[in-house]
Design goal:
The protein has 413 residues and is α/β, with parallel strands linked by helices. It contains twelve helices and 21 strands. The protein has three domains: 259 residues, Aldolase class I (TIM Barrel), CATH 3.20.20.70; 36 residues, no CATH class; 88 residues, Translation factors (Elongation Factor Tu (Ef-tu), domain 3, Beta Barrel). The structure holds iron/sulfur cluster. Iron/sulfur cluster binds next to helix 8. The site of iron/sulfur cluster (SF4) has 12 residues, from helix 8.
């Protein structure tokens, strides 16, 4: 079975991803993991994350994928030995030194080669396999014809299907370090490739000449986001083992919406394949429509059919409008459910419960009670409250509740 692999920037996002159908999640500890801004997990959180995954039939992969320097390496053996003790299902590694250390310290832990290793050919993948890796996360710069070759060579592959793209080879980029002091290769990218740029003549400091492609300015490096939802049948047929979603720094609404859509789409593909072997499966438009609110820069299929061109960049601006915003997360199911409020909730609010699959259930808040069971008219972001709804709903823990954004709500009235 093809695995759906989801990002987890914190414990709550991990639980949401598993709730919405991820077969496996990946996350990082406070050290040795890229995505330093993703709110990486403390030791106790990593332990809780692994236990939660295993209790819910999912796998937990831990990223140890920084480009380590000698000073970093001193603490790596103890960390990997500890990850083995808490039962992680695989380590995601890019640095050969960390790989070698893991093989010495905990040879039983499966190792997945990170996309940061930029594996673009079968010989490289065989190198990793012979060294003891069980899976290779292929570079994003490969098309479907090349991806197929890895499966034919007996390599267990993981392929990115959704999320932000670098304009360099998967994070091998110094732009952020030069401009902001934040090193992409240590997981701290500030995404300056998506900034708005202007022109400055060297003898006129502080005077910025606008470079205008249109009224919004110029965004010279700004790639659209990857989306391969319509290409899942080809990826599954190509023998890809794991479909990976990018986005450890994204919010809960992205995790819920993107994971549940890919879960539904992958189930659709697998179901059709089981019933009509080798059928030419066409993906219903509904899947792509579900993902549109999350593609803040528009979507591209990147290298899937061949190298991308200027149409895969977004020159018009840095982001598009979002239709929905997250309102709350269900932290305890049942009737009434307990919610952690994302933004303010008020009695009378009309919201939508995001079901598993693609379903949505609209409802109205009829009453709110605080943690001491006192009735209140509103709850603020971060508070935990009991909520009565019309109609009465049996909400599941770690489901997400969304709200139509005010601007959109008004224009749609
Ligand atoms: S600046 Fe852009 S291209 Fe460079 S690492 Fe960051 S996201 Fe990738």
């Amino acid at each position: 079975m093809t695995e759906l692999l989801a990002p987890a920037g914190n414990l709550e996002k991990l639980k949401i991803a598993v709730h919405y159908g991820a077969d496996a999640v990946y996350f990082g500890g406070k050290e040795f993991s890229l995505r330093a801004q993703a709110g990486n997990f403390s030791d106790s959180e990593q332990k809780e994350a692994v236990d939660f995954c295993h209790d819910h039939g999912a796998k937990a992969y831990v990223t140890v994928n920084v480009f380590a320097h000698n000073a970093d390496m001193r603490r790596v053996p103890d960390y990997i030995a500890w990850l083995y003790e808490i039962g992680v299902d695989a380590l995601i590694i890019s640095d050969p030194g960390i790989f070698r250390t893991a093989k010495k310290v905990a040879p039983e832990i499966p190792i997945h080669v990170s996309t940061q290793a930029n594996t673009t050919n079968v010989e490289s993948a065989l190198f990793w396999k012979e060294a003891g890796a069980v899976r290779v996360n292929l570079a994003r710069e490969l098309g479907i014809k090349e991806i197929r070759k890895f499966s034919e060579a007996g390599i267990d592959t993981e392929v990115f299907v959704h999320g932000a793209l670098c304009i360099s080879y998967s994070g091998r980029c110094m732009l952020s370090l030069y401009m902001t002091g934040r090193d992409a290769n240590m997981g701290a990218c500030a995404h300056p490739c998506r900034y708005r740029y202007a022109l400055q003549e060297e003898k006129r400091p502080g005077i910025y000449f606008p470079v205008e492609e249109d009224s919004r300015g110029v965004y010279i490096f700004n790639s659209r986001d990857l989306c391969l939802i319509n290409r899942l049948p080809e990826l599954v047929t190509a023998g890809v083992s794991s479909l990976k979603i990018e986005g450890r720094m994204k919010g809960i609404f992205y995790v819920a919406g993107v994971v549940r859509t890919y879960r539904a789409a992958l189930d659709y593909v697998l179901d059709h394949m089981n019933r009509e072997e080798n059928a030419d499966i066409k993906m219903p438009e509904q899947f792509m429509n579900e993902l549109k609110p999350f593609g803040s820069r528009g979507y591209t299929e990147n290298f899937f059919d061949g190298p991308p061109d200027s149409t895969d960049m977004l020159y018009e601006g840095g982001c598009a409008d979002q239709t929905w915003s997250p309102a709350a997360v269900v932290v305890r199911g049942g009737k009434p459910p307990m919610l952690r409020v994302g933004h303010i909730l008020r009695t009378g609010d009309r919201l939508e419960y995001m079901e598993k699959g693609l379903g949505i259930t609209p409802f109205r808040i009829s009453a709110i009670y605080d943690e001491n069971n006192r009735k209140t008219d509103q709850a603020l972001g971060g508070e935990t409250v009991l909520v009565h709804t019309e109609p009465e709903l049996d909400m599941e823990p770690w489901a997400v509740i969304r709200r139509l954004q005010a601007k959109k709500a008004e224009s749609s009235r």
